[in-house]
Amino acid sequence: MRKARTLLSVYLAYMLEYRAELFLWALAGLLPLILMGVWTEAARGGGFPLSPGEFARYFLMVFLVRQATVVWVVWEFERDVVEGRLSFRLLRPLDPYFEHLAAHVAERLARLPFVVLLTLLFFYLFPEARFQPEPGPFLLGLFLTLLAFLLRYTMQYATAMLTFWTERATSVEEVFFLLYLFLSGTIAPLEVFPEPLRELALFTPFPYLVYLPAAFLAGQEVALFPGIWIMLLWGAAFLLLARLLFHLGLKRYSGQGA
After folding, report:
1. Is 71 helix (H, G, I), strand (E, B) or coil?
2. Average pLDDT over residues 70-90
């Protein structure tokens, strides 16, 4: 716990030095709010399973969930390996997994004020999206968001381990990002997907990164079970894969660039 507090305080101070950049990162996540305008207008014509107000609430939650679950560890780890900075991290009595995780958590705390301001602006522009969730479901939604963040972080960390073999793990992550973008519910809620595609998507980890916590927070009916079990199963699988690739990759690591 002492190490965790130290890491969080150090990385929070580091992130606060880049407040303007954090604001731009938050603005870069406005895609769901743009799509919300498209889908609410389309829903006014009928023929969709969600009403315009439900679409607005859903995409607002997508925006908030994505702000809380953004991950960039593959780019950092790739740079560490290519530039030899991983050598210094390995000298510390702490696994790099937790050091990068602390940086992500600190960034969430530093980003929070900007996210709140953008949310208030959204409520002003789209009053139909305003609603007051019950305390119990709201806390459970936050728990689902935390699980989604840990799952996405572990997935990307496992991808980052490929740097030991390719030195361009970010190219693999870009392929995963395309799947994430279309299957996670970022572009559209799963209710508007064709039935075969929706059933197939639910067996992948992607809908649980955005759709499950966002739809639950928006007050929609979602299958918490087996949803949570699938999240835990995928999380355990990627964590084991990441640990295996890390130990195998260290045998190949030569500290190039150091």
Report:
1. coil
2. 94
- Residues 8-21, buried b or exposed e (16+ Cβ, 10 A)? eeebbeebeeeeee
Q: How many other CB atoms are found less than 10 A from the CB of residue 137?
A: 12
Vertex 202 angle, CA 227 and 153, to 5°: 70
Residues 6+ apart with CB under 8 A from 99: 7, 89, 92
Residue 7, CB-side half-sphere exposure with 13 Å CA sphere:
18
DSSP single-letter state for residue 253: -
User: Which alpha helices (H) appear in the chain, and where do they start and end?
Assistant: 2-16, 19-28, 31-43, 52-69, 73-83, 86-90, 96-125, 135-160, 163-166, 169-183, 195-201, 211-217, 224-250
Instruction: Please state, rounded to an integer, the average pLDDT across all residues of the chain.
Output: 92
pLDDT of the residue at 11: 94
For residues 198 and 8, give the distance between their C-alpha atoms in angstroms, rounded to a whole number: 39
Residue 257 has pLDDT above 60, yes or no: no
Nearest-angstrom CA–CA distance, 1 and 68: 22
3-state SS, residue 51:
coil
Mean pLDDT (whole number) for 142-158: 98
Q: Which two tokens stand for residue 164?
A: 């030991």
Residue 258 has pLDDT above 80, yes or no: no
Looking at residue 256, its pLDDT comes to 58
Cα angle value 93/1/143 (rounded, 5°) = 115
